[in-house]
TrEMBL record:
Catalytic reactions on record: UDP-N-acetyl-alpha-D-muramoyl-L-alanine + D-glutamate + ATP = UDP-N-acetyl-alpha-D-muramoyl-L-alanyl-D-glutamate + ADP + phosphate + H(+)
EC number(s) given by UniProt: 6.3.2.9
NCBIfam families assigned: murD
Gene from which the chain derives: murD
Protein name, as recorded: UDP-N-acetylmuramoylalanine--D-glutamate ligase
Source organism: Chryseobacterium hagamense
Record-level GO cellular component terms: cytoplasm
Positions of the Mur ligase C-terminal domain: 306-418
GO terms classed as biological process: cell division; cell wall organization; peptidoglycan biosynthetic process; regulation of cell shape
Family: Belongs to the MurCDEF family.
Length: 444
């Protein structure tokens, strides 16, 4: 079988490696430049590849094409592949064909990385043989090639779900929905939401679908779809007869047996993380992990880097790195959890943001806005009549310098950009690292 892999990053290299190990004829093509470490990996594994262009004839002669999630659905090459009727899969689809492990797959607009990491931690802490992959860590395909896990916990994006055919998790979780990546979904929120719901489309009645009962778009979609999996809800607003919910100062899970613990014992802060902890606990209960083990994991789990990460406190000012907040809804959760006057660093590549969602929170919580991006006009124009202090910057050094001058003892400086990072930074990780470097450079 001839396999062509499009994209030479972690996902693409993992898929090519798995295909090679399965005895397939493999060719990897990347229209851009491949990073040195991945180029060396491909060469070391004797995997044929090209970079800087696509050999169209060779690609369109494939039996099966594996597409990296970063390649837009509307790309010309993708259109030609679809016209020719060649099977086009994401790496998670491809890798899932070669493992019998139970897959726990997590998607949603916000909280995916935190909840994926937390579920992995719960399973690992209980001694289960588990791998972590998808949009986090090593690629799923590379782990399937080299390791023999009984469980995989996968963070899954809508872009990965766009290219599945048979992918069937044992447990799927849809944490929440908000308007994100609409530029890739014809600026249609429902089209984006339906892409997320594909996580459950191949599930059967011996599988589980964990969903957010408070989420309005999820409610609307569930009225139209038939989910075959056993559906288990969680809510932070109402008490449920089955699922996860808040009861006073406690979280509670009601399934075969009950689980309960105090909210203030959770290691993760903020209302959104209570929801994430509920979802993760339900997954733990489905997998029959005992209550004490789940409680221990929820108490000792450490927050994910770039996600409401406390960097340091200088002269009574807290500096928080929430660089992973690349949409308005993620920043909503960050601002909601702020307990002190906040200097807010925001900006980057806008993805169709509607800032009215956070207007009231900004009025109540934010003392000054520091814009960080090449083009900050949309943010400035929206907030100029609502906030007295708005600053326009195009470097992390300047953004942090101004934020430090504005923040007083007892305040918080929050990097929660609402936007993608690619105007000034290589990635949201790069943006977060530069923030931490600038914040701490005077105290090193």
């Amino acid at each position: 079988m001839k396999i062509v892999v499009l994209g030479g990053g972690e996902s693409g290299c993992g898929a090519a490696y798995l295909a090679k190990k399965k005895g397939m004829e493999v060719f990897l093509s990347d229209k851009g430049a491949i990073k040195d470490n991945y180029r060396q990996f491909l060469t070391g594994q004797d995997i044929e590849f090209e970079e800087g262009s696509h050999d169209e004839e060779r690609i369109l002669n494939a039996d099966w094409i594996v597409k990296s999630p970063g390649i837009p659905k509307k790309a010309e090459m993708i259109r030609k592949i679809q016209e020719k009727g060649i099977r086009l899969s994401s790496e998670i689809e491809f890798a899932s064909e070669f493992t019998d492990a139970k897959i726990i797959a997590i998607t949603g607009s916000n909280g995916k990385t935190t909840t994926t990491s937390l579920i992995y931690y719960i399973l690992k802490n209980d001694g289960l043989n588990v791998g972590l992959g998808g949009n986090i860590g090593y690629s799923f395909a590379r782990q399937v090639a080299d390791e023999n896990h009984e469980y995989y916990v996968l963070e899954v994006s809508s872009f990965q779900l766009d290219d599945i055919q048979n992918f069937r998790p044992y447990i799927s979780l849809l944490l929440n929905l908000s308007q994100d990546h609409l530029d890739q979904y014809n600026y249609n929120y429902e089209e984006y939401a339906l892409a997320k719901f594909r996580i459950a489309e191949n599930q059967e009645n011996d599988n589980f679908f964990i969903y957010n009962k408070d989420d309005e778009m999820s409610k609307n979609i569930l009225e139209k779809l038939e989910i075959k999996a056993r559906m288990i809800p969680f809510s932070t607003r109402e008490q449920l007869t089955e699922g996860g919910f808040i009861n006073g100062d406690r979280i509670e899970i009601k399934l075969k047996d009950d689980f309960s613990m105090k909210i203030d014992e959770l290691s993760l802060l903020g209302n959104h993380n209570v929801a994430n902890s509920l979802a993760a606990s339900i997954a733990g209960k489905i997998l029959e992990i005992n209550n004490e083990s789940i409680r221990n994991s929820l108490m000792t789990f450490q927050a994910v880097e770039h996600r409401l990460e406390l960097v340091t406190e200088i002269d009574g000012v807290k500096y928080i790195n929430d660089s992973k907040a690349t949409n308005v809804n993620a920043t909503y959760y960050a601002l909601e959890s702020m307990k002190t006057p906040t200097v807010w660093i925001v900006g980057g590549v806008d993805k169709g943001n509607d800032y009215s969602e956070i207007e009231e929170l900004v009025k109540r919580k934010v003392k000054a806005i520091v814009c960080l991006g090449i083009d900050n006009d949309k943010i400035i124009n929206f907030f100029k009549d609502k906030k007295k202090f708005i600053y326009d910057t195009s470097s992390m050094e300047k953004a942090v310098e101004i934020s430090k001058s504005l923040a007083k003892k007892g305040d918080t400086v929050l990097l929660s950009p609402c936007c993608a990072s690619f105007d000034l930074f290589r990635s949201y990780e790069d943006r977060g690292h530069q923030f931490k470097e600038q914040v701490t450079k005077e105290i090193r």
